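Hi V.,

Quick status before I head out on leave. The structure for the redesign project is tokenized and pasted below; the design run finished overnight.
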């Protein structure tokens, strides 16, 4: 089945099942956004279907997750007032909704929002995008060590998207020029970073991703972020070597920005020796043999 047909089938099912969302409250709009409305960027088996449900009353719960035809569907619930606030603050979600969304159900509230408000880049926009790039790398590292190689590669792809949008925002992108599609993302990257991003995309589209391909994708994403914003992130190849030599299982990875554009990667691991917990810290000036538990 072609990607376009697959997505159409999912969106039609969502629309038919809106009545099943009544437990969320009085629904005003159901909006699909992200790669689910961009077939050229959607990867079957990897990409999520992102849905925003707008309700009249404040929801008891904000996030839900389900599956439709094996695609993960992430549902975010907000009031229309909260969505206006997202636009006013310049949250990256506002740019996504403005440029890449489709209303399946709408009483007019979402259409009115689209006509009356345009998101603007703010300090908050920059803060969220920059942090999102590092969080995506964290998730990629964790999934890599948990042997979820395709998922880890997907996080590497998202990390590059976030940093390209950050760069675009610094360069004055507005509601119309904010990069959404992968083609637009490339426009804001240097030639070397474009090549790296396209390589990550190709790996992500494979039905199976090997360990070697996955760590290569993560390393390429690390290089892109380091290059585009001038920070010093330690080599993921060296982190991989050190963690595998010391650990039986990684519990989490954290990426921490420090002064002078130095970036630390902190991994909490369970070692082979009696399931002892150790924290390994890496910087660009630390070799694998210098790491202390």
């Amino acid at each position: 089945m072609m990607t376009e047909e697959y997505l159409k089938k999912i969106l039609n099912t969502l629309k038919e099942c809106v009545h099943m969302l009544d437990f969320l409250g009085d629904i005003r709009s159901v909006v699909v956004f992200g790669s689910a409305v961009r077939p050229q960027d959607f990867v079957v088996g990897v990409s999520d279907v992102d849905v925003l449900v707008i309700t009249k009353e404040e929801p008891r719960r904000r996030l839900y997750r389900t599956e439709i035809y094996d695609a993960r569907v992430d549902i975010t619930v907000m009031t229309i007032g909260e969505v206006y606030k997202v636009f006013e603050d310049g949250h990256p979600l506002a740019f996504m909704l403005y440029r890449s969304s489709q209303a399946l159900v709408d009483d007019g509230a979402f259409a009115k929002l689209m006509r009356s408000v345009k998101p603007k880049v703010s300090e908050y926009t920059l803060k969220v995008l920059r942090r999102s790039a590092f969080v995506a790398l964290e998730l990629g590292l964790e999934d890599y060590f948990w042997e979820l190689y395709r998922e880890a590669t997907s996080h590497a792809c998202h990390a590059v998207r976030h940093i390209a949008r950050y760069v675009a925002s610094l360069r004055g992108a507005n509601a119309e020029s904010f990069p959404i599609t992968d083609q637009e993302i490339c426009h804001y990257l240097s030639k070397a970073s474009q090549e790296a991003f396209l390589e990550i995309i190709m790996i992500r589209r494979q039905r199976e991703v090997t360990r070697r391909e996955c760590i290569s994708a993560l390393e390429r994403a690390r290089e892109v972020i380091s290059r585009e914003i001038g920070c010093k992130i330690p080599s993921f190849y060296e982190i991989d070597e050190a963690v595998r030599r010391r650990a039986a299982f990684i519990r989490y990875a954290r990426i921490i920005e420090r002064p002078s554009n130095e970036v630390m990667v902190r991994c909490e691991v369970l070692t082979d020796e009696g399931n002892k917990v150790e924290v390994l810290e890496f910087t660009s000036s630390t070799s694998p043999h210098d790491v202390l538990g």
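Above is the designed sequence. Residues 231-293 form one domain.

G. will cover questions while I'm gone.

Best,
W.
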